[in-house]
Amino acid sequence: MGYKVGAINATDSVTLPSRETLRQSCTEFAEEAAREIMRIYAGDLGVRNKADKSPVTDADNAAEAIIVKGLRALTPDTPVVAEEEMAGGRVPVLKNGGPFWLVDPLDGTKEFIKRNGEFTVNIALIEDGKPTLGIVLAPASGTLWRGIVGEGADKREGDGPFTPIHTRPAPANGLTACASRSHAIYSDLDIWFRSNNLTVADRVQAGSSLKFCLIAEGKADIYPRFGPTNEWDTAAGHAVLEAAGGEVVTTDGRQLGYGKPTFKNPHFIARSKDAR
């Protein structure tokens, strides 16, 4: 499906609540969505296919309804681009350069169906084509990562306290590379690592946006992605990683941008700034 980004007067402005209000509210929306996801996870998942043959479950739709309702009440003048609404043809009009939300209510639906725990709830704020705030929550483990670009990132496990996280310096013996559990093509990755003179000492497979968070908290160093992704797949993890000191760039070194005409991403590399 080819999505179109609408445009209205670029001088129109939107006043958002404070960053702390946005972060706390989005944390609460993600937590409520996660509780509903886990309720469904314990029973019949309601698996079916969308028009593009990708799977969707009752949990995708239920979680999205919770998050979208919360965001529209919190910021009524800010468009919400949400995966399942987009799949249903409900495409919002975006303001040129204006803020909008990107929501992937259940990233890693294939992992959810496999019941391996590697799925996440993702909420991101985009401003001027860049992610500025991100929330990633793994419902199965109860781990939550948050980031405000320019202000830092933190993490909470279960009911514990939030603790700051940061990317690590590149290890002297080689990088730890993340790869998608369901989509990685290792021959392509190996060719790319060699062509960029990067030494990989270890690999970590993970589903969903967890790969961004592993780099953000210093457990891995780089995640090249050479397959198709949409903006809602990457925005929240991108914000967390950048807030923690990392970056997400295209293969020609430009920052991965958002609000593209089709909401589809080019190939990209998520990494700590030392991993190059």
TrEMBL record:
**Protein topology in the membrane:** Peripheral membrane protein
InterPro entries the record matches: CysQ (IPR006240), CysQ/Inositol_MonoPase (IPR050725), Inositol_monoP_metal-BS (IPR020583), Inositol_monophosphatase-like (IPR000760), Inositol_monophosphatase_CS (IPR020550)
Q: Which domain of life is it from?
A: Bacteria
One cellular component term from this protein's GO annotations in UniProt: plasma membrane
* Residues the record lists as binding Mg(2+) 1: 83, 104, 106-107, 233
Enzyme superclass (EC)? hydrolase
| Short name of one Pfam family | Inositol_P
* Requisite cofactors: Mg(2+)
Q: What is its main location?
A: membrane
Spell out the subcellular localization from the entry. Cell inner membrane
Molecular function GO labels? 3'(2'),5'-bisphosphate nucleotidase activity; magnesium ion binding
Q: Which reaction does it catalyse?
A: adenosine 3',5'-bisphosphate + H2O = AMP + phosphate
State where Mg(2+) 2 binds. 104, 107, 233
Q: So where does substrate get bound?
A: 83, 106-109, 233
PROSITE patterns, A to Z: IMP_1, IMP_2
Q: Which GO BP annotation is one of this protein's?
A: 3'-phosphoadenosine 5'-phosphosulfate metabolic process
The family note in this entry says: Belongs to the inositol monophosphatase superfamily. CysQ family.
Tell me, what does this protein do in biology?
A: Converts adenosine-3',5'-bisphosphate (PAP) to AMP.
Q: What is this protein called?
A: 3'(2'),5'-bisphosphate nucleotidase CysQ
Give the source species. Reyranella soli
State the gene name recorded for this protein. cysQ
